[in-house]
Amino acid sequence: MLKVVQRLRSALAPDLNRSDLITLLKELNPEFTLKRRITALRNIMEWIRLPAKVQADSEVPDYIQSRNIRFKFFMQFLERNPEEAKYLAENLKRLMRRGSAVKLYCLTGISENTGFFSELSGRVTQSLIPYAYSENDIVDIFKIVFNQTEDSEWMEHSFETILPLFNEFLEKYEITTDGIIQDQNEALIILGSQVAALGISRDIRSKIENKDIIESNFLKLNMLLNRREMQSSVILQTLKACREDLEKVKIDIETSGVSVALIYSLERMTALLDRIELIIYLRETKATQTRQII
Asked: For the chain, what is the largest distance between any 2 Cα atoms, rounded to a whole number of angstroms?
């Protein structure tokens, strides 16, 4: 119901024209405060979400078609307005510097709090205390700019349309993605250490037959990631073995009983392995390396 209301409000709102885009882009002036520039990025994304006329007989959802049309227009608009485009380029350079995306890559969607009240207190604190934004962490910026589920669905469905245009913009303004790619490697080390810590715990090891700590596949995976193993096939093979061990634990708890802590560990480890696999695939080719925007 809320989405319906939001779409209705967007449809009734006056369409943003050329002057509005210039105003939004001017708000990205690097001399302005970070909060003001983040607000400008959020407003640009809201402009892209505004409905546009689309093909009625297409199998692609209307909101995806609409955003593709507006995104293409936005990129063409940047070509015709180089001064404003430089503001966007400078902000992207700052946001894509090394270290800014490590936390983003480490997020799995599973809470790090094992208890209900610790999770509740953390969320209440975040809602009451104003947050201090930092260009060194794009997680919070993503939460503000891409604050709707449909944003990720649009990017996942349309990355073949979005990425070429986005990459052209990066190349034109000499914006490197080397820092983002290095962040992937740093995130793999962090994720690997978390998998190893959970995998060699007593609750997990006790349910896997004939597996000493030194033979743990979780520990082997961590060692591969720590030495920055670049052969993806080697990592993925070890990752597959880790998943097989987790299946053994799940089969065992069906007959031997289970604890809340163990279920949480299994869910978290599954999410960690999924994220490691995703980052490995992102490294595979130059084309997929730039999908970090998704």
From this structure: 69
Residue given tokens 């409905």 in the structure block: 51
Give the mean pLDDT of 52-71. 85
Using CA atoms, how far apart are residues 103 and 95, in angstroms rounded to an integer?
Answer: 13
- Rounded to two decimals, the pTM is 0.74
Q: What is the mean pLDDT of residues 242-257?
A: 87
| Burial environment of residue 174 by CB neighbours within 10 A (0 to 12, 13 to 18, 19 or more) | exposed
Alpha helices per DSSP H over the chain: 2-12, 18-26, 34-49, 62-80, 82-95, 102-106, 116-128, 139-145, 149-172, 178-199, 202-205, 217-226, 232-256, 260-282, 286-289
By CB atoms closer than 10 A (0-12, 13-18, 19+), residue 283 is: middle
Tokens representing 52? 């546009």
pLDDT at 91: 93
Q: In sequence order, which ranges of 173-259 are alpha helices (DSSP H)?
A: 178-199, 202-205, 217-226, 232-256
User: Contact 140/131 with Cβ under 8 angstroms?
Assistant: yes
Dihedral sign of CA atoms 223, 226, 230, 235 in order: positive
Mean pLDDT score across all residues of the chain: 81
42 CB-near residues (< 8 Å, 6+ apart): 144, 145, 147
Report yes or no: 286 and 177 within 8 Å, Cβ to Cβ: no
CA separation for the pair 131, 147 (Å, rounded): 16
